Every structure is written in C-alpha cells, then in structure tokens.
Amino acid sequence: MNMASSGYMCNITEDSHANVLAKIATKLSTCKDMNAISNFIQNNCPELLTGMHNWVLMLLNGEADPGALIPIIDTRIVGSNLSYPLAWLISCCVPATYTVESTLKSTVDDSPQLQWDHWVTLYDSNSKGLSMNRFQHHIFNYRGPTIMVVTCSAGHLFVVAADQEWRESTKHWGGASCCIFQLSPTFKLIEEGPDMMFINEKSRNVPRGITIGRNCKNLALSIDSSLSTVTHTYGMQSDLIALEVLACGSSSTLSKQAKQKQWELKEAHKQRRVPLPGKWEENPDKYLLEMGGINVSHAEQIPD
C-alpha cells in the first residue's frame, strides 16, 4: 500500500515502510551479479550489512544471546513518525556523522546501542503545523547534524541529511557529509557532498523556499516557501504531505538550542517593555491623534 492508493495521509504507515525494505530485499535477492550487488550496497547504503556482521561475530565469540533479538517492525522513535526499520535503513545510508553519538555511547558502557537511539525529533509537521515559520522556529539554532524526512504524494519519500546547522543564506552551505537519497518508489542516492543546502525566506533576489543540490538548473529537490509543493526527479512535482526533522547531534547540542531559544524569548519581552523615546507631551504621535479629534490628555483633566 502506498500513499497514492490510500489517499492523502499525514503519517508514514508501517506498510509503506515495509514496502521500502521489501523492494531493497527483492533487488538484492534477485540479482545474480555479485559485483552489481556490492556496488549497489557501497554506493547507496554502505552500512547495510555492518550490524549483521557485528552480530555474527558476537555470536561466534559467545558475547551475544540469540534469544535477545526483539522484533521491532512496529516500533517507532519516541515522538516521531519514523519506524525503527526505516530508521535502521537511513542509518545504513548516511555517513557516520549522524550516528557517531550512539556509537560512542555503546563503546562507553558496552551495552547494545541502536545507531539511531540518540535521534530526537526537532520538528514534525503533523504536530507542529506545516509552515515555513514553524519549520524555522524549531530547527534554527540547532548547531548539529540533522536528518529531514520529506513525505510526498504518490508514494515519494526522500531523506535529506545536513551536517551543518540550518540557516538562511544567499549562498549554498553544507559540508562533505551532506546527502539526499530517495527511499520510495525507487531507492537511490541522488547527490552528496558540500554546498548543496539552501533555504531562503527573506531575500527577494534569490528563489524562496528550500532547495537541495549544487546544480541550480537541475536541483535534486526543492520545496516552495509555502511548504505545499515538492519538485524532484526530472522536474516532477508532488504535493508535500509531511516534513520531519531529526536532531542527530549530542544531547548538549540540543540543550544549547533550548538555551538560545530562552534567551531570544527574554530579549523579545525586553523589547516590548522599552518606553517610547522622549516625553509624551512632545511626541508627534500625540499631535497627530489630537488633530484627528482624539483627546489624549485625560490624565491632565483629573483634579488633584
């Protein structure tokens, strides 16, 4: 079941997640060319077999309990629409920049650690509202790597990994670990590398919205400023159904963002309480109001 056959849906269903995984499994199992399989994994999901490899080694060394395997097909990341199977697949595709925090935790306490256990939802359009203002409010000032899941109509599903903080700019930004890949209806890495991220809402001299890709004439993906239309493969357009952004940095990075938001809120309250310059008796606004026939001197009429 895909997005098209089930109508407009805000949530990514377990069926669509299973479809993504099933297509990859079918592609690998039906291909008889080992070089082709190796190239596909290396180019699209280089960590696909790492977890299985480590598990087999632990079994051979007597460090793992076969009975400890727990089905997680219906489990979701807390506060997220992302299921564990899809999170696992994404973790196999993105560079280590996005999973290193979980790896470090596992090394410290020697306990099993999922590669996406530290991912936290920064923004989810289903609960926060689908608007550029809400999007920027929740993800700006987070100075760490993020993963954005873009769900479109007709079953199109994309993942954008940004290794630098989101920010408005008239120039493209992003480091070497940035990438975008499509999960459905086809599975493929679209583009990777530096200077492929761009978001603009204020400047009139450059296109507004979110764009991904270095080639401005052939972008990998673009979302208009109203967050309603997604332009992707060969200029194809789809309706934007949902956006979700996951924080992939350390817990301290998330805390710093929260502190920055609190500081900005306090500064905004301070600005509201700033008194008007000069004396009210000499303020031009007073004379303009009086010229309009409005009495603004009620306090002066109260007898002592």
If you had to describe this structure to a student in words, what would you say it looks like?
The chain is α+β, with helices and mostly antiparallel strands and 304 residues long. It is built from 10 helices and 10 strands. It has helices at residues 14-30, 34-44, 50-60, 84-93, 100-109, 125-128, 132-139, 251-272, 284-291, 298-301, and strands at 120-124, 146-152, 157-162, 179-184, 188-192, 197-200, 209-212, 221-223, 229-231, 237-247. Strands 1, 2, 3, 4, 5, 6, 7, 8, 9 and 10 form a 10-stranded antiparallel β-sheet that branches. The chain is elongated, with a radius of gyration of 25 Å. The chain starts with 13 loop residues before the first helix and ends with a helix. The model is unreliable at 1-14 (pLDDT under 50).
Arithmetic mean of pLDDT:
78
Q: Indicate the proportion of strand residues.
A: 15-25%
Helix-strand pattern, N to C?
HHHHHEHHEEEEEEEEEHHH
Per DSSP E runs of 2 or more residues, the count of β-strands stands at 10
- Helix/sheet category: alpha+beta
Largest sheet: 10 strands, antiparallel
Tally of individual helices: 10
Rg to the nearest angstrom? 25 Å
Shape: elongated
Helix content: 25-40%
Measure the end-to-end span: 79 Å
Residue ranges: pLDDT <50 for 5 or more in a row?
1-14
